[in-house]
Structure formats: C-alpha cells, structure tokens
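Hi Q.,

Before the meeting this afternoon, I wanted you to have the glycine prediction in hand. No need to reply - just skim if you have a minute. The sequence and ligand are here:
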Amino acid sequence: MNILIIGNGGREHAFAWKIKQSPLCTNLFVAPGNAGTALVANNIAIAVDDFHHLGAFCLGQKIDLVLVGPEVPLVKGIRDYFEADAQLKNILMVGPGKKGAQLEGSKDFSKQFMLRHNVPTAKAKTFLANETKEAQKYVEGFQPPIVLKADGLAAGKGVVIANSIVEAKTAIQEMLAEKKFGEASAKVLIEEFLDGIELSVFVLTDGTSYVILPEAKDYKRIGDNDSGPNTGGMGSVSPVPFADTAFMKKVEDRIIKPTVEGLKKEGIPYRGFIFIGLMKVKDEPYVIEYNARMGDPETQSVLLRLKNDLVELLVTCAKEELKNYSIEIDPAYAVSVVMTAGGYPEKYNKGDVISGLENTSSHVFHAGTKSANGKNFTDGGRVLAVTGKGRDLKTAISNCYDSVKKISWKDSYYRKDIGQDLLDLQ
Ligand code: AMP
Ligand code: GLY
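Predicted structure with the ligand bound:
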C-alpha cells in the first residue's frame, strides 16, 4: 500500500518508523515531515491543512491510506474534504471528520457530550465574550485553584490553572474580553479543579468497535518535579503502574464504552484515535479532555510496546472491521524523554547543530529538526524524543537517559525525572 502520514512531530516519526516495518507498506510519505521522517519515508513539502495539495498528491501517488497525526487538519475537516470528492473519498483515512473532531476542537462541545452520556468529568460552566462580568462574579464563589479553559484549539496553551480569585479574574478578562486566543477563547469554561494523578488512555475506534492501546503517562510541565509552565509534553512512560486491571475496567465501562456509544447514538461517524486525558482522583477516573488523535510524546512510548502490524490495524479501523481485532502488547516498559531547545516553551533558538545522534542505542524520534549537508539542526522547541525500553521501569529509564546524555546542542535541555514518580509507586 502507498501510505501518507500528515504531520511533522515526534509522533509522526514514531508512526513512520512503525509503519515502515509492515510488509503491507510499499511507499511511505510524510507531509511535511522532519529530518527523522526523512530517514524512513519521503518528506513532501505540503502543509498539514493544505487539503487541496494533499488531495492532489494522494491522487498523483495513488495513496491507499492517509493517517492524520495532528488535530488542526482534523478540526478543519480533512476527512470531510476527502469525502466530498468523487475520487478522494475512496482513499482510506484514519482520523475523524469535523463533527467527531469537535471532541477536541471545542471543550464546550466535549463537556456537553460527556454530560449527555454520563461520562465522569469535572463540573464546568461555559461563558461567552459578552458575559465577562458574569464569569468574574462566578469565580468569586470558587475555592482556588480554578481551572479556566479556552473553548477552541490553542496549541496546548488554552488552559489556565489560577491559584487565586484575582488571577482567575485577570485570565478571564484576557481570554474572554481581550480574546487572547482569538476565536478559540470566544467561549471559556470555568471548571472544578481535580486533584489527582494524570493518565493518558488511547482508543482506536471504527465508530462501533474499538481497541485499547497501551496507556501512558505524560509529563507536561517544563521543570523537574512538575514545576514551571505547561509544554506540549516533556516525556512519557508506558505502562503506568497504577493503571491496573481493576482501574482500567472502570475506565472502559464508565468512559470508553459510553464515549463510543455516545458518538454512535448522536450519528457522528468516527474512524480514528480517541486520546482520553484522565485524572485519577482517589481511585476513580474522570475525563479532563478528549483529543481526536494520538499524543506526543505518548505515541513514541506506546508504539514501542505495540506488537501488531500498525498498517493492518489502521486499515482494519478505516474499513470499520475492528470488531474481532485484538491488540498484542509487549509487557516491557518504554520511556521517552523530550529534549528541547533552551528557553522553550518561551522564546528559543533554531538552527543549532545536533551532535551525538550516532552514539545512541535508543530510538531517537525527531520532532523539531531539519537536515542539511549531512548534519541535523534544531528547528523547533521540542527537538527530539529519545525513547528507551527495558524489562522494568528502572532499566527503561536508565537505557533512555544513557542515550539522552550522549546527544547535545547549544543550550539543549531535558527533564531529569521522567518516570521517577512511578518508580516510587511500584
Ligand atoms: P488540557 O489542555 O485540557 O490537556 O489541559 C492541560 C492540563 O491542565 C492538563 O494536562 C491537566 O494537567 C490540567 N487540567 C486540565 N483540567 C483540569 C482540571 N479540571 N483539574 C485539574 N487539572 C486540570
Ligand atoms: N502530550 C499531550 C498531547 O499530545 O496533547
């Protein structure tokens, strides 16, 4: 099969690496890709939301399967664009249509969806731009921390956890009245704070049946011990020791089943990933958010443990045949550490030479990189996700960091504590 992956992050490099191992894959393309995807696939210089050129490319190269990595093309309706075209509609695609992608594209939609289908989640109330005063009055009754969420996509920056009522009021003013995130903050949710441990659960559904992929824990804050601002993700670990059989059964019964059935009941066809961001409060799971895609850097750890042929799995999903499909998971641990450009998530440098890549024994998935004259250069905030494996968590952590320490560039940075909190839980 000829396959096109859309995206340019570490997630897409991991997808490409795994897809390339399948005997079902003939030609593999990534649009636009990075220096890592160029090692296993052909990069195509087309933007992720340039549907016209993506469509023309698919017809020209006789693409059989499209895997959509990031949320932006999904929320903008790449599937709807393909389905509306007489030729493109025959191409298999993994990723929901515009309606289904609202699970991620609108936090108000997803909150209402969860309420309609009795999916446990934090209580929340939505306010519009002309209700700034009401929203500020509403938070006066809250015990901080107070969670404020821009309704739309805000590149991972749309959530503010305010530690005082004053801070919450300022954030409301910026988001609602001053439209800090543009249209994305035309609506804001004010949400109850959930105090617990986070877990990412990944489901691949064809709209009726589903498979559950290995779970992972993401490390979102920039600094060790979860300090400093939020990022796109600084590391991941799979499996997660506290996600035992009993807990995962609660997740499946109370969250996964009602979510998939809810989509079906509402007439929303869905062929793609649902990434469920959970908070475990005491021993109960609550949904923090849905994403209509896989996570980054969770995918890097998850795919290292997935034994199935990924192309076979994706095709089975796209053809709505997941009913009798079973997932095989390697019981080993996988740990991913993201190496960033110094300064990220604020201002950072691009174009620094990356050295030491040839010395590593782990999988190095590229995110913000580009290559020229046989050298690799930094080209984004999150530069690499170094992923190690081991029989147990301790070994996986040490394998991963052995490689991380061999790689560097000017002002490179990484967290030193990925997985440490889970070691204490074991
Ligand atoms: P999101 O952009 O929805 O992934 O939210 C970013 C981060 O904010 C999450 O990973 C959580 O750490 C945190 N968060 C979101 N909602 C809540 C909540 N209701 N209670 C506590 N933390 C939250
Ligand atoms: N690592 C979190 C995300 O992909 O949204």
